Fold this protein.
Amino acid sequence: MHIALLFNQKSDPDNADPDDQHGACLGAEAEWDSPDTILAVADALATEHQVTRIEADDNAFESLRKLRPDLVFNIAEGRHGAGREAQVPALLEMLDIPYTGSDPVTLGICLDKSRAKEILAYHGIPTARFAVVESAHELNGQVSLPAIAKPLWEGSSKGITDDCLLRDRDALRWKVGEMVERYRQPVLVEEYLPGREFTAALLGNGPDARVLPLVEMDFSVLPAGANPIYSYEAKWVWDDPSDPMPVHQCPAEVDEGLQKAVEDTARRAFRVLRCRDWARIDLRLSGDGVPNVIEINPLPGILPNPEDHSCFPAASRAAGISYAEMVLAVVREACRRYGIA
C-alpha cells in the first residue's frame, strides 16, 4: 500500500525567533514534530508499505492531488488558527483520500478546550468547572480558587507554565491579562483538581478500542517549589533527554477500582468526542478521587526516544508493542474502518 506521511516539521533551533522566549521549536511550533520523529514514523511505515513524506504546507493540497496515495498517515498539527488541526483532514476529505485518525470536526472541537468540556459535561463525564474569558475584567468569581489558567486553543502544554496555578484573585487577573496579550486568544480558567494525574492512551475504534497501560505523572520529582502540574517547564525544560527526569510512571500503580474508573472515563470521552483509531486522554482526580477529563488529544504526540517521555509510545512499550508496531496498528485500525484490505 502507498502511504503518504503528512507532518509539520519544527524549525532548526539555531534559527529560533528571538522574540519567542522559549525558542521556535518549543514556542510557536511546540506541537510540530522533530525530524527524528518524522523519520521514525516513516521508517515504521516503510517496514510494510511504500511511503512518501509530505510537509503540510501551502503545497500539500497539490502534492496530494497528484500523488493520490492509498492512505495518509496524519500527524500534521496545522499552521494557523483555532482550527489548524482540522486543516489536513479537511483537505483529504475534499480529495476523498482515506487517512488515519479523527475527522476535522473532532479535531477542531478537541483543540478548543471549552467546546470539548461542554460536550463532556452534557454527557455526564466529569470535568473540572471552568469559565472562558477574553479579559481580566470578565472574571467574576464563577470559578473557585485555586484555579488553572490556560490558552484556549493550544496544545503540548504551550502557555501552561508553572505560574498558571493561581491561588488568589489578583494573581489570576494578572495572569489572564498577560495570557490574552501574549497568545491573542481567550483563556480557559479551570478549577484546580488536587488529585493524581493520569494519561490514558487508546487504540482502536468503537467497542474494540482498548486502553493501553496507564501513565501517571509523578510530581514528586519536580524541582523544589514547583507546582504539582504537568507544566510547560515540566514537559520541555526540566525534563531534558540528556538528563531525563522520571516524571512518568508506566504502568501506573493503581488498584483495580481506580484503574477501572480511569479507563471507563477515558473510553466514554473517546466515544462521545467521536475519536477514531487512537487518542490520548489526560485525566486528574478530584479531591474525592473521581477521575476528571482535563484534555483530549486525538492527534497524540509520538516522540520515538524513550528519554523524551512521550506518553503514547510509553504506554505502547508497557503493553509490549514496539514503536513500529504501534504506528502500523494505527494504519490497520484506519484500514478496518474504511474497509481497505
Remarks:
- The chain has a mean pLDDT of 90.
- The longest strand covers residues 278-285.
- The CA atoms of residues 3 and 46 lie 9 Å apart.
